[in-house]
Amino acid sequence: MNVNCYQQVITGRNIIARLEGVTQPKVILGGHYDAVSGSPGANDNASGTAVVLAIARRMAGTPLARQTWFVAFDGEEDGFNKSLISNPLRVGRRSE
């Protein structure tokens, strides 16, 4: 596997809600709400954000043992510079 890394400053806004719990550690549930132009943003990753919201709604008002954070992340796609387009995943050939 080859990995190319670089550092870049990205400005975005994460949205965080939390339910208080009795003990630690925290439980963090998250999905990102940004998408790249021309991509199916509903699948990547509005669906994940919708699940986080649905779980938060379902858990609201329920006493919890652990503090739970619900996070909608921004800027997840920015740092990749459309990495899937630049570096598509390739499926290996089946041996015959």
From TrEMBL:
Q: InterPro entries given for it?
A: M28_fam, Peptidase_M28
Protein name in the entry: M28 family metallopeptidase
The molecular function GO annotations come to:
metalloexopeptidase activity
Q: Which GO terms describe its biological process?
A: proteolysis
Q: Which Gene3D superfamilies does the record cross-reference, listed alphabetically?
A: Zn peptidases
Domain Peptidase M28: residue ranges: 14-81
**Record organism:** Aetokthonos hydrillicola Thurmond2011
